[in-house]
Amino acid sequence: MDQLINLFNNYEKKTEELEQEKKAIKEKLINDIKEHKDEINQDFIDFYYYQTNLSSTIIEEILKLSSPLFRCVSKDYKILSHCPNCNKDKEIHFNSRTDIRTNLNKKLCPECEAERKRKNEENREYEKIWSEKRYAARIAEINRLKYMPYKEYLKTEHWQEVRKAALKKAGYKCALCGSTEHLNVHHRTYENRGDEDIKDVIVLCQNCHAKFHDKLQEVE
Ligand SMILES: [Zn+2]
Ligand SMILES: [Zn+2]
Ligand SMILES: [Zn+2]
Q1: For residues 130 and 103, is the Cβ–Cβ distance under 8 A?
Q2: Do 104 and 156 fall within a single domain?
């Protein structure tokens, strides 16, 4: 057991030491870059950006220095960075210094990016098909409501909803005499039956409704 504890303590100590060493190297690297920033050339950039496993934290540090470092780099930055999707360290492409600064730990590796694009495309395609289907279904439903026998239509859930909405909008009163009893919802036009606008219907009490229909017949 003691041996095990010793081993564990050793492990902890070594890990701590390594961390310290790493930190010191990183600091030295950053200082060196600061000191030699005027000497930074394409070779340096190639070395750090194309061949080394420079971690994204160090790149972040380098980016904080306003050195000419990036000014002389070509448009395409390839950086070994962590892909947030597959969690692997992969060469990730950036198009500008700002791009690196804002997307360093956000950009996907080329494989994941291609997969994301493919899925997006697929979703858009499905969405298009489904919206067309939904539209066709809606038109079919309106036509069904519009051309069914009127008596049957009055029993549909759709008409019940239109009716309720019209009554509510009218304040549960006859639009002509203000009565609150025996209210009917009358179609002023059947043109939009099945997809009525609120203006297509009017709330009338039974009396006014009857007069209204008499008048209509007189005109006819
Ligand atoms: Zn990935
Ligand atoms: Zn009335
Ligand atoms: Zn009527």
Answers
A1: no
A2: no
Domain extent at residue 12: 2-114
93 occurs within a structural domain: yes
Ligand 2 centroid to Cα of residue 213, in Å, is 13
Calculate the alpha carbon distances from 130 to 135, 138, 141, 152 in Å: 8, 12, 16, 30
Distance 143 CA to ligand 3 centre (A): 21
pLDDT at res. 61? 61
From residue 43, give the alpha-carbon distance in Å to each of 46, 49, 53, 73, 126.
5, 10, 16, 10, 49
Please report the pLDDT score of residue 51 as a whole number.
Answer: 43
Total length of the chain: 220
Residues in the chain where the model's pLDDT stays below 70: 37-77, 97, 216-220
The pLDDT score that the predictor gives to residue 160 is 97
**Ligand 3 mean position to 209 CA, how many Å?**
6
| Total of domains in the chain | 2
Note the pLDDT of residue 175: 95
**Nearest ligand to the C-alpha of residue 86?**
1
Yes or no: say if 169 and 202 are a contact pair by the CB < 8 Å rule: no
Q: Is the pTM of this model over 0.85?
A: no
Ligand at minimal distance from the CA of 84 is 1
Query: In the prediction, which pLDDT does 182 show?
Result: 94
Spatial separation of the C-alpha atoms in residues 95 and 107, rounded to whole Å: 11
Q: Tell me the ligand closest to 205's alpha carbon.
A: 2
104 and 153 share one domain: no
